[in-house]
């Protein structure tokens, strides 16, 4: 793979890559530094979850290339890596525009490492991660004194398709658990929560956070699959497990608690 770019190494302009976080979806949540970086780009490679209005910050001559990154789409990570290097040597400054924060399960470091192998100058502009913004968009605080001492961000699906063991560790604490890429593991997550005695912990699923398509489902950790079905929730979505979820809509939770008490009395 390295050999195919060897003949390009001494060409001008200086090949450069900047990996940029576009934020969680709302185009107004991109940083000023990210905007300035887009303005200087010769090429932008952007993902499916990026609001395309952000491309208006680019110059007229900037080449804009959609590289997907949705399940079932044809752009593999290897193909994207090669395209970054190819375009950098041909045109100069490549901006890799990725949703959320590319250093939070975004493979940003992999792209930087690949670019460095060819001598590209590399940079990074962080973005607001959905792990923080999705709960906030649903009015869920990540920490509350006396309720949650911290928060734990984890992937719901590892590279081999399995569920992260961090979930079991996190359930042993009072931390708020934020699960990304976990919508295909809802039943498994629910069973683990039940097995650890956390099936009745407050839970939310937030879909398309900060966008006009945002949807939220509330319930308990032991019924995640039911929450998704009832509210027709699917990817892209963030799962939030923790008693802080009760702050999102106190009236909703008060009604739930009343229903549970009435059910217990009838039983």
Task: Describe this protein's structure.
- With 267 residues, the chain is α/β, with parallel strands linked by helices.
- It has 8 helices and 10 strands.
- It has helices at 32-39, 77-91, 108-116, 130-137, 166-170, 186-195, 224-231, 250-266, and strands spanning 16-21, 43-46, 63-66, 93-98, 121-125, 151-155, 176-180, 202-207, 215-220, 237-241.
- The strands form 2 sheets. It has a 5-stranded parallel beta sheet, sandwiched between helices. A 5-stranded mixed beta sheet has the order 6-7-10-8-9, with helices on both faces.
- Residues 263-267 have low confidence and may be disordered.
Q: Hey, roughly how much beta strand do the residues contain? A: 15-25%
Q: Given the C-alpha coordinates, what overall shape results? A: elongated
Average pLDDT: 90
Order of helices and strands: EHEEHEHEHEHEHEEHEH
Q: Could you give the order of strands across the largest sheet?
A: 3-2-4-1-5
Q: Report the helical percentage.
A: 25-40%
* Residue runs with pLDDT of under 50 for 5 or more positions: 263-267
- The radius of gyration is 21 Å
Continuous helix count: 8
The computed structural class is alpha/beta
Distance between the termini: 67 Å
